Amino acid sequence: MASKILHIVNTLTPTLKKGQGDIMHLMGLWLPFGRLFRDFTQDEIFRYCDDLKVRFPFGYIDRFAISLLTMLCHDFSQYEKIIVWHNRDVHEQLFFLLICKIVDVPLYEISTSESAFDHIEYDESNVRYIPQEEHLLNMGKWDSLMQSDSILRIMGKDGIEEVPENFFDARILRSLYKCGLNLWNFTGKLMCTAIFNRSFGNSAEEFIYSRIIEKVKIGELNLYTLSNGRWKKADDEIFTNGTHYSEIKVSLPRNYSLPSEKKTLCLFPDRVNFASYRNFDYDCDSATFPSWILPFGKLPKSFDKSEWERYGMEMQQMMRIKKGVLSDELMAFFNIDLALYSKVIVIHGSSVNEQLFFAMINALTDYPVYEWDISHCTNEGLIMNSGEVSHEVFESVILDEVAEIVTQEKKKECKKLWEQITETACELRIDEDNQIKNVPIDYLDEEIIRVCLIDETNYYVQALKYALLQSHGLSFGALNRFVPARLYQLAVDGKIFPYYRESKKNIRQISNEQLGILNPRKVFMRRNSVKQLTRSLFE
């Protein structure tokens, strides 16, 4: 006796208990590619599969034809409930539309974000009935795709999109140029990028290989295979003769020039996610800026490189940073020609330094600027610093999709803020009442000392974590440099008396002569040393 429940799946693997139903698989991994079959006749389905075999000579395409023809002959009326499982990638969405077209009885769905091939426990509470109006709408979407001549479908911003077959060619060639020649390594990196993973999911690898084959045929790429320890030129047949991809090398012809179209530039105020981003999207250029310095020192009034070099050297001295490090970072950033890019995206949080970074970029260029404000991208509260966003959250989005263009009004406000900040002689900028305010460099000294006196358990950064960061909008990156510098200056001025612990019983005071030699951060970060350092102040 047949089960009363039927689960139709593509790549997902439900875990069912006895009595929870039968499973029917459709190997629909190839639906994003090729001109779809016009109808459900055997000849048209096999025509579609034969076309795919030309593009994907390494795929198991016949499995799709067999499973589809089997499904078309199935009697679905014998079931009380038919549940189609799918996730949000392009394969699963096309598969879902196809099932809505084939199955002419009431349907239910389980929509999940789980990756393909994951074993997912069946939970009846996640089952959703598909209303007839929605069912008919999905059938219409599939009919439209069947009548189209498009041979490539991807998951776009608003659902399934039809794009030209060469839509990703420029991206693939630039990535090849950037990543190296080994086919195995190159493809592995590219297929993990956000755009390919989202567009093709499990078949990203096959798609990339198919485009490489096409480029080899027209002479835009060369293939080499390892033979007797030497690399020899080969043709596209090496994809079907059993040669492992790690033994295949790809290169651009000597006379080939990369596409010259303008690209996107992503600007990061924090190195944490800058490093993450470089690993998952190769189609955009990216750069970082040491934004933690912007709340401190006298900022240059212009964007003259010599002025910023001077500012960098002053900050190195103030923050006791190794000579040349900051100046080199600043010069590398200001050497970027923004005119080379069609889109400039600024990633920022709500901290003072990242807000100043955003204002600086808008003041720096008259070209359109886009922003990705990550302040509210999680449910964990206000994100002050872009480095606080986890790599998982960061890599789950594509920047050029969530970035919004900065309006002219907002751009004017940013320029006005930057002018106000750079016109003052004050050397400290903090957040007060949600406004960035210029104050003297010693403005927080008493508060730093007071917080240190209260804290009896840990390092000064722990004590200042909530007091300074939350109340004045300075990020940890900024505080980690600023606080040691202020404590050092307070000690040099004789306003505090630093101690350090040689042993449990031996506490020694540091002389002014030693302050000029010792790294104050090593001294002040010792357990309980801040309390001892500030104990005699104001007594």
Structure description:
The chain is of the alpha/beta class and 539 residues long. The chain has 4 domains: 5-161, no CATH class; 166-251; 263-423, no CATH class; 444-534, no CATH class. 41% of the residues lie in helices and 17% in strands. The protein has 21 helices and 21 strands. The strands form 7 sheets. The protein has a 5-stranded mixed beta sheet, covered by helices on one side. A 5-stranded mixed beta sheet has the order 14-13-15-16-17, with helices on both faces. Helix 9 links the parallel strand 13 (263-268) and strand 14. Helix 1 (42-55) runs antiparallel to helix 2, helix 3 (90-102) crosses helix 4 (132-146) and helix 10 packs antiparallel against helix 11 (325-334). The radius of gyration is 30 Å and the shape is elongated. It starts with a strand and ends in a 5-residue tail after the last helix. Mean pLDDT is 79; it is low at 455-461, 525-530 and 533-539.
Describe how the helices and strands are arranged.
Elements (H helix, E strand, L loop, with lengths): L4 E5 L3 E3 L6 E4 L16 H14 L5 H12 L8 E6 L3 H13 L5 E4 L7 E3 L6 E2 L2 H15 L6 E4 L2 E4 L6 H11 L3 H9 L2 H7 L3 H14 L4 E6 L2 E5 L13 E4 L11 E6 L2 H8 L6 E4 L16 H14 L6 H10 L6 E8 L3 H13 L4 E5 L17 H5 L3 H4 L1 E2 L2 H16 L4 E5 L2 E5 L5 H10 L5 H13 L3 H17 L6 E3 L5 E3 L2 H4 L4 H5 L4 H6 L5
Parallel strand pairs: 1-3, 1-4, 2-6, 4-5, 13-14, 13-15, 15-16
Antiparallel strand pairs: 5-7, 8-9, 10-11, 10-12, 16-17, 18-19, 20-21
